């Protein structure tokens, strides 16, 4: 499922993070008012106020509970550190994902909210259940690269893809949503390197991607190469010239299709050379000049490839390991230093959670200066996740894979692990807020789950706005709760 964008640095994480500057804590005050009303789930009009206020402290600590708390973790259930004044969660009864909803009026503006529609999980999210009213742009995810310059249809047959893609574009157009498609992804980037290796190849590949877009009516192409110059899934073709050739591909695409939107999805660590060193702005000038949008995958910071558990998508990295100082703050700073304009950048927010099987039931604190975090724990493996988690088998390289440990965030509520108002845990789980990273987590005697809730999502949106970014996007549209996307949209456009 969502793991097509997972495992960012299975091989290269320590080296990639080595030159990263440590993110500094921020204190964010968010106050949002929106006029939404609900007499039944997701049937919104414009009558009742929803207020959202949160104050994220930069130097607070979790408070241990001598009585052990629920779940036997030895820490206070739902601990709050230096409790924020006047902090309330959104009073929104639209907590589930019932899709019999009245359309929310679009509010136009410079900033946009986008999402990735997982075509490979169309049975899990039929087009009829997609909340078009919450998004300005939706990208059909994901076409794949083929060695013969044709565009692949991932796990779908050609007929399945054709039917779904045409219906998707028509539905987007009918709801005033910009339809684009993505080529690449974790399992679909194997042939990028050879497809862009020469000028002749770039011309042919650019033509192929544009022809593919025009066939279905997509108005933009999102190139998600994981990763140029650096091995991703394990069997990608890789060349030292990949980054330069990728930029020349973008130039060719824009030359052939100037009216089409050109976006590229890039890693949280910035654009790197084959030695994992961050490239200077002078080496990515062409990309900065021709792409319309750079989408930052500000997630997958911790997973099965890191030595401890940790936040999937931290806002900051105050308590992180020295070799893994990746965060929302550092990612935005990297891309600005690499010469991209703020209005070119879009911040990625995960709609999925990641889980680990803990080594022991008690959580061990990590103390860094004035911070205390319980996020970083030893683990023994990755458990099965939710309904749409990866299953053990073989990947596109023929390598054995296990469970991904992924949950859709709305599944955590449906399973009873997280309360509907997102303030407490259940079914043996305790909900914690981690001031070091700005991200919550759930922990039981055996499992830790990292996720983003409405509060942390809105905090990221506010931070992106403060940096002048073009907008945010969710990966993917299945995962986040409707109330979370609504709150993000309100924060983004107000």
Give the topology.
Layout: H1 13-17, E1 28-38, E2 44-56, E3 112-118, E4 137-145, E5 151-152, H2 158-174, E6 178-184, H3 192-195, H4 199-216, E7 220-224, H5 242-256, E8 261-267, H6 285-290, E9 293-297, H7 328-337, E10 345-350, E11 352-358, E12 366-368, E13 371-373, E14 379-381, E15 393-394, E16 400-401, E17 406-408, H8 409-414, E18 430-434, E19 439-443, E20 447-450, H9 454-466, E21 471-475, H10 482-493
Helix pairs in contact: 4-5, 9-10
Q: What would the average pLDDT be, to the nearest integer?
A: 84
Q: What's the story with the biggest beta sheet?
A: 8 strands, parallel, barrel
| Rg estimate, integer Å | 21 Å
Using the coordinates shown, work out and report the CATH topology: TIM Barrel
- The tally of beta strands, per DSSP, is 21
Signal peptide: 1-23
Keywords: Signal
Pfam families: Glyco_hydro_18
GO molecular function: chitin binding; chitinase activity
Folded structure, characterized:
21% of the residues lie in helices and 23% in strands. The protein contains ten helices and 21 strands. Strands 3-4-6-7-8-9-10-21 form an eight-stranded parallel barrel, surrounded by six helices. Strands 11, 14, 17, 18, 19 and 20 form a six-stranded antiparallel beta sheet that branches. Strands 1-2 form a two-stranded antiparallel sheet.
Give a brief outline of the structure.
The chain has about 500 residues and is α/β, with parallel strands linked by helices. The protein has helices at about 15, 160-175, 190-195, 200-215, 240-255, 285-290, 330-335, 410-415, 455-465, 480-494, and strands spanning about 30-40, 45-55, 110-120, 135-145, 150, 180-185, 220-225, 260-265, 295, 345-350, 350-360, 365-370, 370-375, 380, 395, 400, 405-410, 430-435, 440-445, 445-450, 470-475. Helix 4 packs across helix 5 (about 240-255) and helix 9 (about 455-465) packs parallel to helix 10.
């Amino acid at each position: 499922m969502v793991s097509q964008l997972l495992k960012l640095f299975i091989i290269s994480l320590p080296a990639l993070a080595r030159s990263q500057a440590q993110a500094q804590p921020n204190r964010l005050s968010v106050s949002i008012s929106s006029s939404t009303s609900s007499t039944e789930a997701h049937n919104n009009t414009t009558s009742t106020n929803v207020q959202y206020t949160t104050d994220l402290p930069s130097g607070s600590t979790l408070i241990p509970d001598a009585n052990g708390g629920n779940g036997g973790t030895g820490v206070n259930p739902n601990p709050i550190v230096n409790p924020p004044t006047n902090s309330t969660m959104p009073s929104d009864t639209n907590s589930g994902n019932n899709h019999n909803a009245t359309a929310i009026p679009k509010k136009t503006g410079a900033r946009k909210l986008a999402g990735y529609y997982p075509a490979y999980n169309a049975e899990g999210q039929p087009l009829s259940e997609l909340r078009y009213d919450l998004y300005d742009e939706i990208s059909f995810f994901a076409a794949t690269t083929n060695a013969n310059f044709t565009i692949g249809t991932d796990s779908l047959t050609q007929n399945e893809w054709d039917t779904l893609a045409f219906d998707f574009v028509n539905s987007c157009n009918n709801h005033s949503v910009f339809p684009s498609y993505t080529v690449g992804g974790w399992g679909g980037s194997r042939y990028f390197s050879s497809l862009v290796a020469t000028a002749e190849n770039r011309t042919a590949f650019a033509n192929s991607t544009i022809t593919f877009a025009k066939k279905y009516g997509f108005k933009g192409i999102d190139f998600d190469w994981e990763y140029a110059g650096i091995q991703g899934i394990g069997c990608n073709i890789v060349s030292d010239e990949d980054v330069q050739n990728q930029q020349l591909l973008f130039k060719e695409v824009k030359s052939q299709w100037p009216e089409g939107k050109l976006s590229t999805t890039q890693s949280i660590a910035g654009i790197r050379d084959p030695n994992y060193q961050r490239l200077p702005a002078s080496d990515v000038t062409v990309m900065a000049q021709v792409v319309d949008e750079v989408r930052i995958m500000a997630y997958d910071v911790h997973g099965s490839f890191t030595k401890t558990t940790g936040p999937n998508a931290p806002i900051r990295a105050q308590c992180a390991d020295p070799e893994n100082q990746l965060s929302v703050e550092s990612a935005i700073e990297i891309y600005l230093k690499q010469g991209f304009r703020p209005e070119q950048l879009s911040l990625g927010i995960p709609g999925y959670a990641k889980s680990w099987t803990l080594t022991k039931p008690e959580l061990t604190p990590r103390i860094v200066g004035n911070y205390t975090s319980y996020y970083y724990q030893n683990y023994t493996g990755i458990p099965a996740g939710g309904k749409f988690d990866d299953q053990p088998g073989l990947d596109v390289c023929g390598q054995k894979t296990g469970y991904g440990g992924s949950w859709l965030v709305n599944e955590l509520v449906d399973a009873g692990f997280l309360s509907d108002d997102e303030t407490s845990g259940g079914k043996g789980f305790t909900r914690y807020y981690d001031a070091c990273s700005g991200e919550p987590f759930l922990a039981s005697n055996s499992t830790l789950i990292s996720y983003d809730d409405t509060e942390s999502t809105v905090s990221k949106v506010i931070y992106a706005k403060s940096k002048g970014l073009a907008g945010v996007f969710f990966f993917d549209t299945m995962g986040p709760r409707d109330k979370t996307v609504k709150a993000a949209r309100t924060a983004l456009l107000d």
